[in-house]
Structure formats: structure tokens, C-alpha cells
Design goal:
Shape: globular
Distance between the termini: 30 Å
Radius of gyration: 16 Å
Largest sheet: 6 strands, mixed
Bound molecules: magnesium ion
Number of helices: 4
Helix content: 10-25%
């Protein structure tokens, strides 16, 4: 299983990090070893004291597929949930400045949190989903899927040109503005249309 992640898919977040708006999706991968086991605390790695949360809408792949058209995209997905794309921000900035790949800042152990998934049919219109992320009860991020620069069917078609999708793969669709650092003992929670899907404790 792999995490296929999209960067800079909300204009507000691209602006807050000083990045130009992309003309095609920015894509990176996290391996299965990046996934935090359910119920486990997130441990801030020693190499990166400034880990940022990035809450994202996540879709799960239901079948093996390649070269998927936008019209077929929803047929290869079987669930929707929320995730956290933990990012070692200073390290990422250093890598970006050198033009190097981001992986060690994005795909380290525990850097991918994925909630339980709800059936796609839970929601009648995936073009208008709202999700909220809170840090210790304080609202930090609000995502609205109509703000996505590249909508989900476009993303599925784009990434499946390059990567075969397999059952259990997950697609992180990008984070809205409001990212920030996590601290030891933080309680991180997120809701999708009122469903409490995600809760992560940051180890002290
Ligand atoms: Mg992200």
C-alpha cells in the first residue's frame, strides 16, 4: 500500500508557504511504513523538532487500476476519510531550496495518519465537503472541497498515468491554509461533515 499525496492544492495554503500556484498537480509518495498505526501516539522525530500538521481529505482506492479517465475515477475509489500529512517543515524548506526531493521531510515513520473510511455514498456531493481540524480544541484548518485547485477525478486520472493504483492505496488531496507546528501532548482531532473521524495524541 502507498500514500499518494498532492501538494499545493489549495490556493490559500500555497500562498502561506510562498509557493506559486501549480499548473499541474504536485505529487509525492509516502510508503506504507510512514503510516502511524491506529491508536498509536505520534512521536516528534529527533531530527525534526518543527513538525507541522497538514489535515487533508483522503480517498481510499478500491481496485487495481491504471490510466483511469476522469469519468471513471469515482469507480476506483471506495472510501473517504481524513488524514494528517506530518511534515518536517524546516527540513523540507532546506530540501526545496536545494532542489532536492522532499521524501525525508515528508515520508518518515509515522508521518501519515489515516482515519477510518466512510463509504462514498455517505455524502451526495463530494464537490462540496467541509472538514475541520483542531489542535487542543482550537480550530486551525477548514477545508472545503470546492476550493480544490485540482478536483478529485482530475487527481485520480493524473496520478494513475504514472502509478498503478492498488486496493488500499490512499490519496491525500492536499491541505488548506492554517498549517502549523505540533507540540508534545497535543490532541489533534478532525471532523468531516460532522463525523468525528480522526484523533491523534502527540507523545510527551
Ligand atoms: Mg500535504
Amino acid at each position: 500500500m502507498k500514500c499518494i499525496c498532492i501538494g499545493r492544492n489549495y490556493a490559500g495554503h500555497a500562498r502561506e508557504l510562498g509557493n506559486p500556484l501549480p499548473t499541474q498537480p504536485v505529487v509525492f509518495l509516502k510508503p506504507s511504513t510512514a503510516c502511524l498505526a491506529p491508536g498509536q501516539p505520534f512521536r516528534i522525530p529527533a531530527f525534526a523538532p518543527d513538525v507541522h500538521y497538514e489535515c487533508e481529505l483522503v480517498y481510499r482506492v478500491g481496485c487495481r487500476a491504471t490510466q483511469v479517465s476522469e469519468a471513471e475515477a469515482w469507480n476506483v475509489l471506495d472510501g473517504v476519510g481524513l488524514g494528517l500529512d506530518f511534515t518536517a517543515r524546516t527540513l523540507q524548506e532546506q530540501l526545496k531550496q536545494k532542489g532536492l526531493p522532499w521524501e525525508i521531510s515528508k515520508a518518515f515513520d509515522g508521518s501519515a495518519v489515516v482515519s477510518e473510511f466512510l463509504p462514498l455514498g455517505t455524502f451526495p456531493d463530494h464537490g462540496h465537503l467541509r472538514y475541520e481540524f483542531r489542535q487542543n480544541g482550537t480550530l486551525r484548518q477548514v477545508g472545503e472541497t470546492h476550493d480544490l485547485i485540482f478536483p478529485v477525478p482530475y487527481l485520480v486520472a493524473f496520478v494513475s498515468r504514472y502509478f498503478t493504483l492498488e486496493p488500499g492505496d490512499v490519496l491525500f488531496t492536499g491541505t488548506p491554509e492554517g498549517v502549523g507546528p505540533v507540540a508534545p501532548t497535543d490532541e489533534l482531532t478532525a471532523q468531516l461533515e460532522g463525523h468525528d473521524l480522526l484523533r491523534v495524541h502527540v507523545a510527551g
